[in-house]
Design a protein that fits this description.
Elements: H1 3-19, E1 34-35, E2 44-51, E3 54-56, E4 59-63, E5 68-74, E6 82-86, E7 92-97, E8 103-107, E9 113-118, E10 135-141
């Protein structure tokens, strides 16, 4: 196959991929994101499960200036987990050790942006849980 044929084939394959991309002005949460609804009492409630190097859901979308309650727990097992959420400026918004019994974490995010969400636990001589993929995003929208 000549170089020109390879380039043409590559272009042919990329056109459908580019067509599926969003325009720059369009902003939709990813398909796997959980968009949290505001309950009649004005609180956004979501349940988060931590497990073997995951959070479920791992991408949560909430509204700014509206109270949030996360009911967080971890799967049964020996590995300890926590939930840390950092504000875009790096300040820690939430840091809570998790148990198999759900714990309620309440806060009100003020600033729109993407807040890193992760487990800060690190066994001796091993990679941290975050380094092993136990992270997600709390996305705060206006």
């Amino acid at each position: 196959m000549s170089a020109m044929t390879r380039i043409s084939t590559l272009g042919f394959l990329l056109v459908p991929l580019a067509a599926g991309c969003q325009s720059a002005g369009e902003q939709k949460p990813p398909a796997q994101a959980q968009v949290v609804k505001v309950d009649p009492d004005g609180v956004q409630r979501v349940t988060v499960l931590a497990g073997s190097y995951f959070f479920k859901p791992h991408h949560i979308v909430v509204k700014a200036d509206t109270p949030v309650e996360i009911l967080a727990s971890r799967e049964a097992g020996l590995a300890p987990h926590d939930l840390v959420i950092q504000a875009p400026d790096g300040a820690t918004l939430v840091q809570q050790d998790l148990a198999t019994e759900p714990r309620k974490i309440a806060f009100t995010p003020r600033k729109p942006g993407k807040y890193p969400m992760y487990c800060s636990k690190k066994p001796p001589l091993m990679a941290s849980h975050r380094e092993r993929g136990m992270e997600g995003i709390l996305e705060v929208v206006p």
